[in-house]
User: Which sequence fits this backbone?
């Protein structure tokens, strides 16, 4: 022991002779993430980016003249007005319904709650064409309420009311689905504290609930407006696609393209594409704002 203690040799790092050489582990770079990212970009390019770019290139291929001529057309202007009118009416109605449904679901326990959630999600799973057909079967001339509506000279199908019903149906779930998770995360502590201090239900809603759900609500409003203005399937079934009467902007694009009015069709498509771009920008801003508030 004394010899070992007084030995000047440093035994650190000395490997016993019987042990094997240490195995060197080398990490090889995986190409899987790169391949997956490339596949995603190629898919998006073929399905989304190239067709969208083609719309803009074709619309502006002959300058701004054809676009200005298309904008001056009465049927184009009427399609824009009709589309805006549908969105302006459907948006507040769906906002009232969405807030009411979200409040009832998030703050109450009652039989059929899961069923109500499933019904709210119905427009996500049903084809818009089927939704339009349901409206025709209810309010059409041979529908359930058709005879009564006809006897009272009320026209729903192939008129503005039918288009509005279709627009409301397809854009109904967004606000409720965006607000419900926010209300669940918010809890009831602040509301109970406000009620203890003497606030009534209306004051609690406007001064406690709305400030906490405002970003989720705005996010739902953006999605609802985009869905209402861009709807094609359900509206095409119930509208009749009558030019300057029941022809929304998406229907105008289809009809113009069928009539070989390429510049006019692409000009209207550019307007819808710009709406989609604005929606995506607002969506991104609200998503970042919402994530900051949650942190």
Assistant:
């Amino acid at each position: 022991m004394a010899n070992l203690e007084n030995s000047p040799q440093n035994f650190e790092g000395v490997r016993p002779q019987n042990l094997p050489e240490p195995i060197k582990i080398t990490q090889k770079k995986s190409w899987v993430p790169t391949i997956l990212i490339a596949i995603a970009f190629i898919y998006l390019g073929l399905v989304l980016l190239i067709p969208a770019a083609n719309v803009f290139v074709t619309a502006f291929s002959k300058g701004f003249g054809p676009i200005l001529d298309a904008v001056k057309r009465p049927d184009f202007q009427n399609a824009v007005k009709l589309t805006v009118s549908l969105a302006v009416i459907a948006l507040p109605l769906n906002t009232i319904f969405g807030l009411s449904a979200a409040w009832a679901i998030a703050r109450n326990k009652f039989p059929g709650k899961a069923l109500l959630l499933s019904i709210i999600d119905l427009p996500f799973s049903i084809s818009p064409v089927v939704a339009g057909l349901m409206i025709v079967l209810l309010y059409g001339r041979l529908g359930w309420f058709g005879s009564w509506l006809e006897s009272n000279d009320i026209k729903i199908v192939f008129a503005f009311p039918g288009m509005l019903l279709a627009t409301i149906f397809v854009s109904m779930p967004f606000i409720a689905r965006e607000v419900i998770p926010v209300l669940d995360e918010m809890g009831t502590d602040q509301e109970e504290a406000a009620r203890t201090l003497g606030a009534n239900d209306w004051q609690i809603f406007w001064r406690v609930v709305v400030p906490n759900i405002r970003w989720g609500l705005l996010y739902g409003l953006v999605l609802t407006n985009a869905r209402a203005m861009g709807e094609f399937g359900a509206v095409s079934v119930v509208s009749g696609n009558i030019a300057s009467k029941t022809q929304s902007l998406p229907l105008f694009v289809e009809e113009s393209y069928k009539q070989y009015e390429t510049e006019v069709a692409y000009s209207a498509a550019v307007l819808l594409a710009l709406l989609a771009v604005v929606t995506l920008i607002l969506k991104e801003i609200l998503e970042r704002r919402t994530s900051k508030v949650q942190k």
